[in-house]
């Protein structure tokens, strides 16, 4: 479904060259927007906004900016990508400054590369502004070290859901010792859990599942891999959530204790 908020637009825009900005709006907290993203958004005449972009961020729009909601969320009815592409081209060719506003970062499961290439093929000026993806914001949000000396020397950001039903190389990830942050894994958390166990992840691997990272509605549960699906169901967590898998999750509790001491001081 597409909703639109209209406002007056300058009559001289058709004589100007339009441009599309792919703007990463971060995981939801408007304080996590980059300075550049906030500046670009304040100047944009048209916003094409993903479903996960919060109302507080929409409040940064300039008076008279046109806001078109083009919701895209896993497991829900979405605006077709082809239609979004045509909207970007239409407004840019009218001389508008267009902000394609995406949750997280445009280049992490955000189709940013596809959209830049599509616009370039049609001679439409486009540029991207990076944002903080939920899989990285989760560390600060929970006091969870995604890397930890002697425990995890890296992070892998993966998706459990793809259009062609392919999967990451879970066996390689199980052997890597990396912290794995899984997006789009809530549709079938039981199936994901079984895939990971079959691939060689230990049953007692620590897991954190975080719903709406950095937002006021943020909720999380800490579990272990063989109980992950049951604990997700018991907590009533759903999409949008990220699933953090790996030994580094076990250090989250110590971070929580230190944070509580600091806040009490």
Looking at the structure, what is the overall shape? elongated
Q: What is the multimeric organization of the chains shown?
A: single chain
Could you say what the CATH architecture of the largest domain is? 2-Layer Sandwich
The CATH topology of the largest domain corresponds to Methyltransferase, Cobalt-precorrin-4 Transmethylase, Domain 2
InterPro entries: 4pyrrol_Mease, 4pyrrol_Methylase_sf, 4pyrrole_Mease_sub1, 4pyrrole_Mease_sub2, CobA/CysG_C, Siro_Cobalamin_biosynth, Uropor_MeTrfase_CS
Organism: Bordetella genomosp. 9
Family: Belongs to the precorrin methyltransferase family.
Protein name: uroporphyrinogen-III C-methyltransferase
Relevant terms:
single chain, about 260 residues, alpha/beta, Cobalt-precorrin-4 Transmethylase, domain 1, Methyltransferase, Cobalt-precorrin-4 Transmethylase, Domain 2, 2 domains, 6-stranded mixed beta sheet, 5-stranded mixed beta sheet, 9 helices, 11 strands, about 30% helix, about 20% strand, disordered N terminus, disordered C terminus, uroporphyrinogen-III C-methyltransferase, uroporphyrin-III C-methyltransferase activity, porphyrin biosynthesis
């Amino acid at each position: 479904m597409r909703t639109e908020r209209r406002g007056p637009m300058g009559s001289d825009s058709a004589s100007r060259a339009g441009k599309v900005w792919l703007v990463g709006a971060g995981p939801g907290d408007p304080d996590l927007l980059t300075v550049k993203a906030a500046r670009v958004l304040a100047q944009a005449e048209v916003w094409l906004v993903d479903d996960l972009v919060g109302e507080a961020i929409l409040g940064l729009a300039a008076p008279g900016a046109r806001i078109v909601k083009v919701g895209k969320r896993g497991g829900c009815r979405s605006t077709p990508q082809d239609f979004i592409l045509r909207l970007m081209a239409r407004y840019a060719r009218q001389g508008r400054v267009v902000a394609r506003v995406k949750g997280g970062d445009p280049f992490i499961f955000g189709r940013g590369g596809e959209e830049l290439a599509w616009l370039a093929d049609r001679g439409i000026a486009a540029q991207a502004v990076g944002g903080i993806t939920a899989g990285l914001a989760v560390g600060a949000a929970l006091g969870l070290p995604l890397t930890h000396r002697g425990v995890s020397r890296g992070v892998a950001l993966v998706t459990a859901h793809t259009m062609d039903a392919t999967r990451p190389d879970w066996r390689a990830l199980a052997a890597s010792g990396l912290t794995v942050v899984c997006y789009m894994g809530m549709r079938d958390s039981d199936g994901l859990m079984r895939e990971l166990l079959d691939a060689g992840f230990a049953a007692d691997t620590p897991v954190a599942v975080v719903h709406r990272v950095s937002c006021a509605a943020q909720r999380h549960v800490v579990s272990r891999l063989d109980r992950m699906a049951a604990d997700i169901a018991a907590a009533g967590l759903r999409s949008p959530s990220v699933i953090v898998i790996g030994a580094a999750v076990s250090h989250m509790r110590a971070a929580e204790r230190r944070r509580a001491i600091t806040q009490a001081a």
